[in-house]
Every structure is written in C-alpha cells, then in structure tokens.
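Q: You know discrete backbone vocabularies at least as well as I do. I have my own habits and do not want them to colour yours. No explanation is needed for now; the record alone will do.
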Amino acid sequence: MHDRKLHLVLASASPRRRALLKQIGLRFKVIPSNIKELINKDLSPAVNVKQLAFKKASEVAKRLKEGIVIGADTVVILDGMIIKKPKSKAEAKKMLRMLSDRIHTVYTGCSLIDVRSGKHIEFVEKTKVKFRKLEDSEIDLYVRTGAPLDKAGAYGIQDDFGAVFIEKIEGCYYNVVGFPLARFYTIYRKFIKSLERK
C-alpha cells in the first residue's frame, strides 16, 4: 500500500515500528515524541497504553502544520503488574525469570491524529504469550547481547534470541513485536476515508 500524497509522521524512535510500517508500503517521517512514559497505576493497562499513544502523537502533532501522526505504546502485563523496558541488565534478568514458564499479556495502544482537523482515533490490541521454562544460562547469554534493554518485557519475538523463549501466542504476532499491523491497517484506511469525506 503506497500513499505518496499523505504526509505521515511516526511519533516513535522504535526501529521495529519503522520496519513494520515500511513493510506495508507506507512512506513517513520519524519525529520521536518527547513525553515521559509515565504509568498511572489507577488505570487499566489498556487505558494506559491508549492514553500514552495519544499523548505521544499529540505532542508531535503540536509541532506540525499538517499531516497525520501515528503514536504507539506497548507494555507487558504479568499478574496485573506492568513490565516496561528494563533499566539495567540486572533488571532485564529479573524480568525474564519472572516471565519464564508463564503466560503474560502484551498490550499496544495506537493513536492517529490529523493535524489540521484535530480529528483522532485510538485503539488497543492485546496478545497472550506463553514462555517456556528458561534456564539461567540462556537468560544470561541473551542479556549479555544487550538486546533486551530497549524492549518492553526485556525480550524480542522477531529478530533475536528472544524468539526461542516463546512456546505459543494467542492473538496478533505483530502486536508482540510492538505494532499490531492488521488492526492498524484496517483502522488507518477507515480514518483516511473519513478525512476525505470532509
């Protein structure tokens, strides 16, 4: 899908989100959001990621005169506890030990904002992930690569050693990567059509 006339902006520095949007043929600029990813513990994971996605897109939209801004935020939930990106290798090891041999849920919130009209739409996708039982040596080896440090839940399903930790998933695979492609594509098309009707 190619949209050469649309001025699209991704409000994220995530290389995985960039790659996924390119995968479906979208042309866009990257302008990372400057907001702090603060979690409100009084709100559900779904509401948190939806609000953060909107805040990220809004912060970037305020800097522009036109275009459609895409915001996203992903968290991992285990036993009601939100697991974001690890701040250190020690924290990454702790996270992976917690996820070992258990089921967790990945939530991604997405937001689309049309700068000129202010029109916006948000949605949330969730996927359940089952880890097999991990050995400490595997965790140590993976964390030494540094790969877990920029990923929610301290692992990547797509292109590194973290892929072998996963026994099965229930839901959208790309959501675990960090961006629910199929759902986004469907909602994006509807959003563009709604703007064209104006």
Observations:
- The chain has one domain: 8-196.
- The radius of gyration is 17 Å.
